[in-house]
Each structure stands twice: as structure tokens, then as C-alpha cells.
Amino acid sequence: MKADDILVALGEVDATLVKSAKKSRRSNKRIIIALSSMPLVL
Amino acid sequence: LKDEKIVSLYFERSEQAIAETSAKYGKYCYSIAYNILYSDQDAEESVNDTYMDAWNSIPPHRPTILSTFLGKITRRISIDKWRKAHAKKRGAGEMCGVIDELEECITDGESIEDEFEKRRLAEVISGFVSSLQGAEQKVFLCRYWYMDSVLSICKQFGFSESKVKSMLMRTREKLKSILEEEGFA
Fold first, then answer.
1. Which helix (H) or strand (E) holds B120?
2. If you average pLDDT over residues B65-90, what whole number do you get?
3. What mean pLDDT comes out for the span B143-152?
4. What ipTM is given for this predicted complex?
5. Any CB–CB contact under 8 A between B65 and chain A?
6. Is B52 in contact with B38 (CB distance < 8 Å)?
7. pTM for the whole thing?
8. How far are the Cα atoms of B21, B23, B115, B121 from residue B18, in angstroms, in the given order?
């Protein structure tokens, strides 16, 4: 087996898991943006 | 436009389907292709081939998650392109790093040609990815499905480089052990 066989096989991974990996990236970004716009209270 | 409407446009054989797909998912597909091919021109070609493939497969196919359906086509087309271009030489981009890392999981150097074995490998790998939890699963998919760079993964998850590298290394070790158990490595 070659390493790219693994990459090709990974293409068959469940679509919801693939989408969820992408989704978390967006929500992480949203959290960072929200935190950066929060007023700093000392 | 909602995905359901875009899919309907394909079913109506309206060329507007391609324009709407490009507007909504063009950048998403391009980023997948570029991570693999590391060339503007090749990535754009892959994205255009993706639209053509989607046009030919919808109908009869009705994708449940349009983004992943398109991303999967882009990824397959781009990996094929990469394989053809790099049959002898190695190139730039994330693919070389990804391939080097995955080589740790295998011992044999022969490509799998048998369709039954290809399907079995896909099932084993799908089961393996489903068994991973939380960030480990997401980081693994970002690196080996989306071919994101380690640096990009660090930024996305807020992890240090050493944390991402060690997470990926542990996951590859688990994958290697599963592949050995299943007779693939």
C-alpha cells in the first residue's frame, strides 16, 4: 500500500464528520472575533 | 441561495446551478485544490472540473450536504492531478508533508489496485475516523482531508505547533496499529 491510498480512502469518510471539522473552524473564528470585541473590565 | 435550491437548479438542468455553486462554494473548493496542488492555475482547473463533475452527477444523485459533496469531488480530482504530475518527482505544497507523514503508517510500497481491497481500506479508515473523538478527529481531518498546513491548524484551533504535531503523531500511531490489525501495513 502507498501513502496516497490512505488519502484516497479518506475521501470516503462520512460527510457529516468532514463538515463538522470545517464547522468548528468557523465557530472558533466567531468566538475569537466575539472575544476581541468585548470590553476589557479591570 | 440555499443548497436545496442550488440542487434543484441542477435537476432543472439550469446553467445557473454552476454560477450559484461557484458563488457559494468556489472559494471552499479552491482552497482544497490549492492545498493539494499549490498552483493557482491547477487549482482553478480542478474547481472547474468539479463543476463539470457535479453537473454530470446531479441528477440522478441528490447530495445531502452540498459543500462536502463538492469538496469530495475537488479533493479526488486534485489528488489524481497531483499523482499524475508527481509520479516521479516531488513538488511543493502540503501534499509532500502529508504523504511523508502517512508513510509512517505503512510498510509496503505497492499501490492497491484491487477494487475490493480499496473499498475495504475505505471502510477501515472511515471506521477509524469515526472512532476518534472531538479535537483529535477534527485536527486529523483538517490535516489529511483538507490538507491544511500545521500552522493553519494551530490558528484554527488555538493550539501550539507542538501540540498539533504530537496529536497528529499519536493519531497516526493508532491508525498504523489498526492498519496492521486489518492486514494493510
1. helix B115-131
2. 86
3. 93
4. 0.81
5. yes
6. no
7. 0.81
8. 5, 9, 32, 33
Residue A29 C-alpha, separation from nearest chain B C-alpha, in angstroms: 7
Helix %, strand %, coil % of chain A (to 5): 70, 0, 30
Q: Nearest 10 degrees: CA dihedral of B113, B123, A9, B100?
A: -100
Which distant-in-sequence residues (6+ apart) come within 8 Å of B131 by Cβ?
none
Looking at residue B99, its pLDDT comes to 86
For B60, the enclosing helix (H) or strand (E) is: none
Cβ contacts of B144 on chain A, cutoff 8 Å? 6-7, 10
Q: State the nearest Cα–Cα gap between B73 and chain A, in angstroms.
A: 9
Confidence of residue B139 (pLDDT cuts 50, 70, 90): very high
Residues from chain B contacting residue A20 (CB–CB below 8 Å): 138
Query: How close, in Å, is residue A35 to chain B by CA atoms?
Result: 13
